[in-house]
């Protein structure tokens, strides 16, 4: 029996999972690590804490699975996108990684746009300069930490640091690199024009691969730390959402998914390059060779609900712990007691600023319409509705671009709530389905490893054989019509506050 390992380096923790050839998860392990926020709007993590967690998770799955190390055919990597890892000549981290949700680079984004030109930047990288993307972080370090910048010799993305620790190679792949503002997305390679105009040394960047290509092999040193066998191939892998697309079967035209994790994403497959000229949503290279994806990212989707839970639902968290239950299940039952529109209460989920589709790092969370009659359940439902409205606003951009789909697959922690899925179906006005067995990016990374090592013939054929859907919810036109005026008002509230957010940021 051959086995495949998928490693998904998330924002809150890493998940490592080992799968058999039929896609069955034999064993998995999740190890958490801290997030550091040294200033308002900043977000950082320590690369060596990632590696310690990965090594621990790999030891865990190898110890529990019963699989022999020599039977592992390949390893695939997935992870949070856009993070900046800077290494010195010896391959040591020079500073903590600046993460995808960090909003400190507004000045640098303006500098990038001026140097390259807004239109030309989107033509090359398929995206505007965004605060979460990697290029602005590089320029921020150059401006604010010149000693770190002068010592830099290698720039990696988060999952590619794990590759370096496993294989000793500096490599990346097209799907994750698409989110750096440095890749020529139509040509699927680094942009000499962008690098030259920004003054970034091309020698610092890792070698480019397609997602299924073998990039290196597990070293004896890494094998000793992880319980793996030396020489196991490690393929390119993919950014978390591109890997999730593989793990959910979204590898052909007409397929899309919504995931509600810390962030919220809508992700659709495209056989041709489709670019929004306004840059409101992102076009990236797909993990499928020769294909592309269109995706949106809202920064605080499940993160908004977690914020509400942590600050206002302590009793439910305590009760859930005593019952060995999910506190979100108890919270959802309360949200169901509030009507559509949350008794005329609207929430803007901009706790970390916002990316898609408003591109505003200064935006902040708002309860609009709060009155003395509102209860916690109204605030709870307003948060859930606000998250879905933020995703619907992105979906409207997809439709403008001509990117369509037959149904929407719901994934991530938010998909476990039938209440939230039904809200999605009604607000999106399209059927919403779930997976029979959801392993997400970890499975996607493992499938990529399987294709790269010859276990599977191709991504579409592997996904067709391994992935099944269930739980189809049809949209209710009556409920959809009831949500619509609140959605329109939701958009108007942000438009009215846009300039006020900028003033607030300057106080």
Describe this structure in words.
With 507 residues, the chain is α+β, with helices and mostly antiparallel strands. The chain folds into two domains: 3-248, ATPase, nucleotide binding domain (Nucleotidyltransferase, domain 5, 2-Layer Sandwich), CATH 3.30.420.40; 302-399 and 415-434 and 476-505, Nucleotidyltransferase, domain 5. It has 18 helices and 24 strands. A hairpin with a 6-residue loop joins strand 18 (282-285) and strand 19. Helix 14 (376-401) packs across helix 15 (418-428).
Blueprint of the fold:
Blueprint: E1 3-9, E2 13-20, E3 25-32, E4 44-45, H1 47-65, E5 72-79, E6 85-87, E7 97-98, H2 106-116, H3 118-125, H4 134-144, H5 146-151, E8 154-156, H6 158-167, E9 171-173, H7 174-177, E10 183-184, E11 189-190, H8 192-198, E12 207-209, E13 214-217, H9 220-226, E14 233-235, E15 238-239, H10 240-247, E16 254-260, E17 264-270, E18 282-285, E19 292-298, H11 302-312, H12 314-323, H13 327-335, E20 346-348, E21 366-368, H14 376-401, E22 405-411, H15 418-428, E23 432-435, H16 440-452, H17 459-466, E24 469-473, H18 477-505
Parallel strand pairs: 1-5, 5-15, 9-12, 16-22, 22-23
Antiparallel strand pairs: 1-2, 2-3, 4-7, 6-8, 10-11, 13-14, 16-17, 17-19, 18-19, 20-21, 23-24
Helix pairs in contact: 1-6, 2-4, 10-16, 11-12, 11-14, 12-13, 13-14, 14-15, 15-18
